[in-house]
Design brief:
Length: about 150
């Protein structure tokens, strides 16, 4: 009977020890690892924010430069048109003014922004073939009837 009480008390002591160690591990995570992870996360967040600010600044600067380029192009074009009016005869000056109006209309229109406004149509089959054969892009290319395959 004495052995049973000894075994029970050892089991209780071991249980308490295991519970205490488990509680300590759960309640106190690694102090260095947790702090290090939080510090790395904060550094990464800071880096991402800095990159976003740089991207925004770059976009704004690019937009300003493109606007300046557009205005400079217009000033050069106006200068050339004015020079053509003063240096050319009346017929040439009239042609320059008409061309200037057409360019202004093109720049302002939405069609000038389209890269390829006309549809290109379906793909063309340029693969070498005999005249009586179906082309590679043909709907029936490579298909055989069930009777032919048997």
């Amino acid at each position: 009977m004495d052995n049973i009480w000894l075994v029970v008390s050892i089991a209780v002591a071991v249980g308490i020890a295991v519970g205490a160690v488990g509680f300590w591990l759960i309640a106190n995570p690694e102090k260095d690892g947790g702090a290090k992870s939080r510090k790395e996360l904060a550094e990464l967040n800071n880096k991402v924010e800095q990159q976003q600010l740089q991207i925004n600044e770059h976009s704004v600067t690019t937009a300003d430069l493109v606007n300046k380029l557009t205005l400079t192009y217009k000033e050069v074009y106006d200068h050339l048109a004015q020079g053509a009016q003063t240096l050319c005869d009346a017929d040439a000056a009239t042609q320059v003014l008409e061309a200037r109006e057409n360019v202004s209309k093109l720049i302002a229109s939405d069609e000038a922004r389209d890269i390829n406004p006309e549809p290109t149509g379906p793909a063309k089959d340029y693969a070498p073939k005999n005249p009586d054969e179906a082309g590679v892009l043909s709907e029936g290319f490579g298909l055989t009837d069930a009777a032919e395959s048997k």
